[in-house]
Design a protein that fits this description.
about 90 residues; two-stranded parallel sheet
């Protein structure tokens, strides 16, 4: 699933990357995430080829988190392991 089956929106991608450069890893963003008082479920795939730092950093700072890593899934766990994804959601 690493090969996209649709085109990339280059303008959107540039904008998101610029925002990430300005805010990612900043004390302000970290503090804002730490203040979130909502339950969060992160379901991700162990075989995702993209860097795990974003997901790992969220998991480390969010106060009310449950994380499920699906061993056989990549970047699209709901497509690559729908049964595992469904179990993770229903167990919330």
């Amino acid at each position: 699933m690493a090969e996209p089956w649709f085109g990339v929106n280059e303008a959107c991608n540039r904008s998101l990357n610029e925002e990430r450069k300005r805010t990612w890893g900043t004390p302000g963003l970290r503090a804002a995430c730490a203040r979130l008082d909502v339950p969060v479920l992160i379901v991700d795939g162990a075989r995702d080829i993209r860097p795990r730092t974003a997901v790992d950093s969220l998991a480390a700072v969010l106060p009310r988190i449950r994380r499920v890593v699906l061993p056989a899934a990549g970047h699209l766990p709901w497509v690559e392991d729908p049964a595992g994804f469904r179990r993770a959601i229903l167990a919330s």
